[in-house]
Please model this.
Amino acid sequence: MKTYNLPGIDVPASNVVLGLMRIQDKTDEEVRTLVGTALDAGITVMDHADVYGSPLHGCEVRFAEAMKLTSSQRESMVIQSKAGIVPDGPYFDFSSEHIVASVDASLKALGTDYLDLLLLHRPDALVEPEDVAKAFDELGAAGKVRAFGVSNHTPGQIDLLRKHVKQPIVANQVQLSVTHAPIIAQGVAMNMAGLDQSISRDNGIVDYCRLHDITLQAWSPFQAGFFTGPFLGNDDYPELNAVVGRLADRYDVPALAIATAWITRHPAQWQVVIGTTTPERVAAAAQGSEIPLTRAEWYEMFRAAGYAVP
Model:
């Protein structure tokens, strides 16, 4: 398992992240087994959000109740959470009052004094970056948040924040799988008129994050599209699944590991956020973080997923 040293965070962050958005109905033993399997696989990062669970912070509460972390256990993890979505609206709120209140509620729910990383959860069209800076300063000075990032933000949106906040933006969580990869595929088809793949929909976010040392986190790494179900074993992707199956045999790993490997092979040093609640799938996905797919294998999967390689 590869690890990264993110600014402001003492614990090395693994390149696979355990997403805990579906644990509210799990028993204590099920949560402990899930998290324990992740830790045994070298996964140090636990991903939360205020909107995971019902009511708000429901999954954070379930995590804390089940895990009952000791101080040493807490210090060996990177716990991140997200704020900014108001689901009852629905709308977004990046006001300093909302951000601070959300973090305070997350800390209470998680039973911890600090978050290693806070992400702004999707862009707020009404963002006032000076107000975000106020919240970051307050949370940082109080020791409640050690590092800050965003989710689903464009380069321009990040630059607007960076103009005002003192703290570095260390992460950006965006959707990526081999079948949902416009942020990578566009560059391959640059300037090819008439090809939909050549249209930039993100203003070069991958290159931007690499230029500014912002870690990219891939959510829904096994989804075919935007919440359309997994591509593995999906009859709509026979060629891709054939390639994945052959590579899984070659490397003697489950298919999930190959899906993970396609993302972690990219030199942007992605973190892969896995949201499964099945321990066996966690272990399988984690195996892919160390598989060194060749360029030919990576591009073969890319082509099999339906993307053009000119």
The chain has a mean pLDDT of 97. Residues 235 and 241 are 9 Å apart (CA to CA).
